Amino acid sequence: MSLLWTAKEMIEAMDGRPLGTMPAGVSGISIDSRTVGDGEAFFAIKGDRFDGHNFASVAVANGASLLVVDESKLPAMGRVTAPMIVVNDVLAALEDLGRAARARSDARVIAITGSVGKTSTKEMLRRALEPSGEVHASTASFNNHWGVPLTLARMPVSAAYGVFEIGMNHPDEIRPLVKMVRPHVALITTIAAAHMGNFKNLGEIAAAKGEIMEGLDKDGHLLLNRDNEKYGWLKKHASELGLKHVHSFGENPKAEFRLLNCKLLPDCSTITARIGADDVAVKIGAPGRHLVQNALAVIGTVHLVGADLAKATHALAAISAEKGRGARHALKIDGGSFMLIDESYNANPASMRAALELLRDTPVRLRGRRVAVLGDMLEMGRFSERVHRDLAAPLREAKADLVCLAGPEMRALKDELGTEMETVYRDDADGLAAYLKTGLRDGDAVMVKSSLGIGFGRIVKALLDKYPALPDSSTQD
Fold first, then answer.
1. How many Å apart are CA 470 and CA 449, to the nearest integer?
2. pLDDT tens figures, 270-283
3. Looking at the predicted structure, is the pLDDT value of residue 477 above 60?
C-alpha cells in the first residue's frame, strides 16, 4: 500500500492526540463512511445534515484504518475500537492537513473560479496536463469550505500539477480557501449573473470572484477573460493588489491567448488560437461555443505553467462532456432514435444561454424537433422573474420547437412565451418526466437544463431507463 500520509505526519500537521495503536500511515483521506477505502483515514466532519461521528463504525467496517475525531465526541464513541487522532475541531484539522500538503508539494498549482465553466475547465485542464506529468485535481465539484481542504489533503507529494476549483455563493468564501491553495496560476473563467439573490449586481460578483487574487503566489500569474465586461475592473483590482503578471484570453484582439477562428460542429469544435508568437490548431472533443472559451483558458494555463503545449492540444481532442454538463446520449425510440443532452447539473442565465446555443447547433432529422426542457434557476433573488422571462429570446434564437417547463419560477417564462411556442408546463421534474416518456419522437434533440436543486437529473434518468442507448451513444445519424 502506497502511503499518502504517515500517522506521524498527520499528528504533527493537525496537532492531534493519538489514541490506540497507530498504523504506519494511510493511503487516502475520506469524509464519507460509505465510500471510504481500505487503509484510508476517515475524518468525522459534522455537516449541515449529518455528523460523521455517528458513522465512524460504518467507516471502520468499510476499511478505514484511522479515524480523526472531535475531542468533545470521544465519550460517545466507546464502542469504536479503531485507532484515532483526537483533535479540537475535525474540519479545522482537515484544513491544517491541507496546508501541510501544500507546503510539502513542489507541484505547479492552479486555482479556477468563475460564474460559469469552473468544473468543465478544471476537467479539460486535468486532461491537457496529464501528458506532461502527474496531475492531482478536485473530484467532481469539490469547491467549497470542505471540498477544497479535502482535495488539498489528498494531494500526493509526487504530483507535478495541482488543479483546484474554488466556488462561492457569498462574499468572503473564496478568500480563505485560496489562501490555503496558494496557486501559481489563478484563472477566472467569466463573471456572470449567478447567485444573484446574494448580490446587488455584477460588480459585487466580480469582487467576490476577485478574492482569488489574494492567495496568488507573489510571482504568480492571473488569467482573465478579456471578452467579459468585468475584465477592466478585474485587471485594475489586480494592479491595486500589486500583481505583476496579468494575462488574458478571448476573441479580443488584445487578448494574449487569442481565438483566431472557430468552427462549431455537432459533436466537436475546431479552433485556431494564437499563443505567444505561435498559431495553434486545436480540436475540442465535445461541442459547444462555451467550451471553446474554456479551451482557450486551458491552453493559456498550460503555457503559463510550462507544460507541453502540443501534447495538451492533442489531449483536448479526446475530451467528452460529463454527466449533467452536456453529456450526450443517442437513444432508441420507435422507428428510430433521438438525442438527449444532459445539462441537468446546474443553471444560471449565462449557462442557460450556452445550453440553448448547444441545442440550436444540434442537428435534428426528418420530423425531429428541438426540445428545450428547462427548470428553475435558483438563487436569483429579486431578479428571478426577470431572468426567467429573459430566456424567451435565447429560446427563439435556438429555434426551439417544443418548450417543456417545470418549477414555480418557470411560470414567468411560460407567461412570457404565451402561444408563441408550443409549451408544456408541469409543477415539478417528475411530472415533466412522465410527459416526456411518451411525448418524444424519432429525430428529436432534447436538452435538459435546470439548477441542481430542481431535480432534473430525475428526468434524464427516467429517459435513460425507458429508452435503450444506441451502440455509439455519442452520435446520432
1. 22
2. 999 999 889 999 99
3. no
Which range, of 31-35, 161-165, 198-202, 206-210, averages the lowest pLDDT? 198-202
Task: Give the C-alpha distances (Å, rounded to integers) separating 14 from 44, 95, 134, 360.
Answer: 14, 9, 26, 52
From 242-251, 359-368, 428-437, the region with the lowest mean pLDDT:
359-368
Instruction: Using a pLDDT cut of 90, give the percent of the chain over it.
Output: 83
Range 211-222 burial, b when 16+ CB lie within 10 A, else e: bbbebbeeebbb
* CA pair distance 342, 324, nearest whole angstrom: 5
Its CATH architecture, for the domain 327-466, is Alpha-Beta Complex (3.90)
Contacts of residue 401, Cβ cutoff 8 Å, sequence gap at least 6: 369, 370, 371, 421, 422
464-to-165, 328, 331, 424 alpha-carbon distances in Å: 30, 11, 8, 21
* Rounded Cα–Cα distance for residues 326 and 341 (Å): 6
pLDDT of 272? 97
CATH architecture of 5-88: 3-Layer(aba) Sandwich (3.40)
Task: Return the percentage of the chain with pLDDT > 70, whole number.
Answer: 99
The domain made up of 105-316 has a fold known as: UDP-N-acetylmuramoyl-L-alanine:D-glutamate ligase (3.40.1190)
Q: Which amino acid is at 372?
A: A
407 dihedral zone (left: phi>0; alpha: psi -120 to 50; beta) = left
- Arithmetic mean of pLDDT, 101-121: 95
pLDDT reading at 303 higher than 60: yes
For the chain, what are the domain ranges?
Answer: 5-88, 105-316, 327-466
Residue 472 has pLDDT above 80, yes or no: no
At residue 445's C-alpha, the angle toward residues 444 and 447, to 5°, is 135
Intrachain domains 5-88 and 105-316 with the same fold: no
Q: For 109-118, b where at least 16 C-beta lie within 10 A, e where not — what string?
A: bbbbbbbbbb
pLDDT surpasses 90 at 70: yes
Write down the mean pLDDT value for the chain: 94
- Predicted TM-score (pTM) of the model is 0.87
Burial (CB count within 10 angstroms: exposed 0-12, middle 13-18, buried 19+), residue 21: exposed
